[in-house]
Amino acid sequence: MNQRKTTLAVIIGNRDFFPDVLVSEARRDILKLFGELGLESVMPDERATKLGAVETWAHAKICGELFSANRDRIDGVLVCLPNFGDEKGVAESLKLAGLNVPVLVQAYPDDLDMFSVERRRDAFCGKISVCNNLRQFRIPFSLTTSHTVHPLSDEFRNDLRSFVAQCRVVRGLRSARIGAIGARPNAFNTTRYSEKLLQASGISVSTLDLSDVFSRAERLKDDDTRVKDKISDITGYASAGATPAAALVRMAKLGIVLLDWMDQNDLDATAIQCWSSMQQNYGVNACTVMSMMSERLMPSACEVDITGVVAMYALQLASGTPSALVDWNNNYGKDDDKCVFFHCGNWAKTFLPDIQIGTAPILGTTLGEENTHGALQGRTPAGPVTFARVSTDDLDGCIRAYVGAGSFTDDPLDTFGTRAVVKVPGLQRLLRHICRNGFEHHAAMSASNCVAAFSEALETYMGWHVHVHDTSA
């Protein structure tokens, strides 16, 4: 993932009959907070406008021009209201800047002991007016958990971290480049999708035929230095166990070809036809190679599930950690709130502390287990999980998604592949929603809790329809 620092533009609202000291204090608070969280800022200089705040049309023009000049580096905007602020100044600054990035509106709380003219804020009221104007100007925005909150409080730190995650998701998705490698398995209508709906949201899809992949791989010599280095990379990543040397060579060549193609096309993620041509015509599973890419923040999904990898990429951007694609695969006994996540399997190493390279017994029943070397084995330990799905709804001409949180558990599970037991309160309601709305049997998962950032980014800024699973109902 790009490690550049997140940059937020900052608008400090002001009204001139409130005390100036409130604005100066707010500026110091924001700069202190940004320093703690490693964020960069773009805001008017204290000499460019009165105290660097925005109130008048003249101030809005100065602020808008500054933001516009820094458009390429600005990921989002923080609107800070140390007092009532000026609703027009905030909205006009954003309109003039033309940034089209997430906006977070924060308002300082009043102190019951400081309602005198010298310290009174009224930001509680001003925030409502600012949001009213943003709605009039059709500028989407996000809100803090509490209506008013001090910037240096732990609550706002959490709000701001979530907002920064939203900014990463929005910037990433609006320019995402996804690789579709091979045709979807013929038996999987479920992974059909609309390239045009994705493109309308800024997500581009590039395609590569598997025959081209195989021919490029075959042209690589077994003793090529790159092949030898890639084998070392693979065996250093996971225990190869009884994997034949010939299968490791094929996996290495496959990995080189895929990474070369991604680099040539500036791709962020891939979805691959992982069966049955891969086994029949090349003789290995792609799982290990795909896992390595996902672990290194280049998510890769099974069965050419393009919208599945879009969900993986969004979760990765929201959490800053690897994601994986899973099947909602099995009930867990008679426990209505537990189920089994499974794939045969290409999950990132993050999910598999006991990772091993093996075979895929299920595919092996029809394709020959000797042709499935490269599948992974491992169990995900207890911890948090966010699950999500993105789907193009061609019938209604929109993109839909769902997201929710649960937990991985250490309940007994005697099976193979990459696997996890998951507890989701209200699971049966969620499964009814998935089935009634035609979502796929695949979901993306992240070993984190990033529901708020994922849902806000996709619904408020991408304009997608997002269902957030309520675990309290």
Number of helices: 15
Name the CATH homologous superfamily of the largest domain. L-fucose Isomerase, Chain A, domain 2
CATH architecture of the largest domain: 3-Layer(aba) Sandwich
User: Total domains, how many?
Assistant: 2
Strand content: 15-25%
Q: What kind of sheet is the major sheet?
A: 6 strands, antiparallel, barrel
Structural class: alpha/beta
Cα distance, first to last residue?
36 Å
The best one-word shape is elongated
What's the CATH class of the largest domain, please? Answer: Alpha Beta
Average pLDDT reading: 96
Weakly predicted, low-confidence segments: none
Radius of gyration, whole Å: 25 Å
CATH fold name of the largest domain = L-fucose Isomerase, Chain A, domain 2
Record field, number of beta strands: 18
Task: Give the helix proportion (percent range).
Answer: 25-40%
Strand line-up across the major sheet: 10-11-16-15-14-17
Task: Please describe what this structure looks like.
By secondary structure, the chain is of the alpha/beta class. The chain has 2 domains: about 5-175, Rossmann fold; about 175-470, 3-Layer(aba) Sandwich (L-fucose Isomerase, Chain A, domain 2), CATH 3.40.275.10. The chain is about 40% helix and about 20% strand. It contains 15 helices and 18 strands. Strands 10-11-16-15-14-17 form a 6-stranded antiparallel beta barrel, surrounded by 4 helices. It has a 5-stranded parallel β-sheet with strand order 2-1-3-4-5, with helices on both faces. α2 runs parallel beside α3 (about 85-95), α3 runs parallel beside α4 and α8 (about 225-235) packs across α9. The protein is elongated and about 80 Å long. The two termini are about 35 Å apart.
